[in-house]
Write a structure and sequence with these properties.
Elements: H1 2-10, H2 12-29, H3 34-41, H4 48-58, H5 64-76, H6 90-125, H7 130-144, H8 147-161, H9 173-202, H10 206-213, H11 218-230, H12 232-246, H13 250-255, H14 261-270, H15 274-302, H16 304-313
Membrane topology: Multi-pass membrane protein
Domain ABC transmembrane type-1: 98-299
Keywords: Cell membrane, Ion transport, Membrane, Nickel, Nickel transport, Transmembrane, Transmembrane helix, Transport
Length: 314
């Protein structure tokens, strides 16, 4: 297992180099001149002399390979440049906003897991029951309703009409409830369907029959055998969505005025804040890589057969 983890960590390096190459090449492929974008954001009239000075300052007059190597060195030092808009280090801006995004992502994941695991499991072992019909309805509803509409509905009923939760902002657990529920509902729909289908499939596997013939308690079979294996597809989906949530949930952050990473990225696009955009792409790639690695490790713990398969391939 240690060799597998080391192998996966080493695979991060070429992905990181490729992401750096793309972000560096983005400057050359984009029709927007970074020097001109900086001067525009600073409300300075661009002239040929000032543009040449800024291009030299940003290193844009150097060969592409030199720019690429310099980008890697700076990124390793967590130096993503200066924001054109705020005139502050991009890394400081990101670390200021990232905790809000992490808080929102974890809140929605916790709600989704607490609801979808028991609901999907019970729907699978009690096929065509009332709870199974309810789970299918909830899955259909959660997958169909747009996030921005759900967010506004929750604000209308629970903030405007009932005055239970704040409309916008951040600070207390009450601020976290509505945006977390808005993000969690589509995840509940997805995970409930995945878990239900996986439970139904595993109930037909020979190991369930063998366990029953050995006289093992039915609850033990369901909890320690069926659920342990059936939850594997849900864990995979969880890891993919965790990376997505950590890179910023743009629509929900906009609806609830949540000062997160995704909203910061959208503002950077409108303002042509190229250092921020480059930083976002690299962080997004890193988060997806790390999320997938964590999911693989959890999968190996849940299903030891994966560990044996890895060892066999080696």
């Amino acid at each position: 297992m240690g060799t597998y983890i080391l192998k996966r960590i080493m695979s991060i390096i070429p992905v990181f180099l490729l992401a750096t190459l793309l972000t560096t090449g983005m400057i050359h492929l984009s029709p927007v001149d970074p020097a001109e974008a900086y001067l525009t954001a600073a409300h300075i009239q661009p002239t040929d002399e000032i543009l040449a000075q800024k291009r030299h300052e940003f290193g844009l007059d150097q060969p592409f390979l030199s720019q690429y190597v310099n980008s890697i060195i700076k990124i390793c030092q967590l130096d993503f440049g200066i924001s054109y808009v705020s005139n502050k280090p991009v890394w400081d801006e990101v670390t200021y906003r990232m905790p809000a995004t992490i808080q929102l992502a974890l809140g929605s994941i916790v709600i989704a897991v607490l609801v979808s695991v028991p609901l999907g499991f019970l729907a699978g072992i009690k096929k065509n029951s009332l709870i199974d019909h309810f789970s299918r309805f909830l899955s259909f509803f959660g997958a169909s309703i747009p996030s921005f509409w759900l967010g506004y509905l929750l604000i209308f009923f629970f903030s405007v009409r009932l005055d239970l939760f704040p409309v916008e902002g951040i600070g207390t657990w009450q601020h976290l409830v509505l945006p977390s529920v808005t993000l969690a509902l589509p995840l509940i729909a997805m995970y409930t369907r995945l878990l239900r289908a996986s439970v139904l499939e595993n109930l037909q596997e020979p190991y369930v029959l063998f366990a029953r013939t050995r006289g093992i308690n039915e609850k033990t079979i369901m909890a320690k055998h069926v659920l342990r294996i059936a939850i594997s597809p849900m864990v995979t989906g969880l890891g993919m969505n965790l990376g997505k949530l950590l890179t910023g949930t743009i629509i929900v952050e906009a609806v609830f005025s949540w000062p997160g990473f995704g909203r910061y990225f959208i503002e950077a696009i409108f303002n042509r804040d190229i250092p921020v955009i480059q930083c976002y792409v690299l962080i997004a790639a890193s988060l997806f890589i790390v999320s997938n690695l964590i999911v693989d490790l959890i999968q190996m713990y849940i299903d030891p057969r994966i560990s044996r398969k890895e060892g066999h391939h080696r």
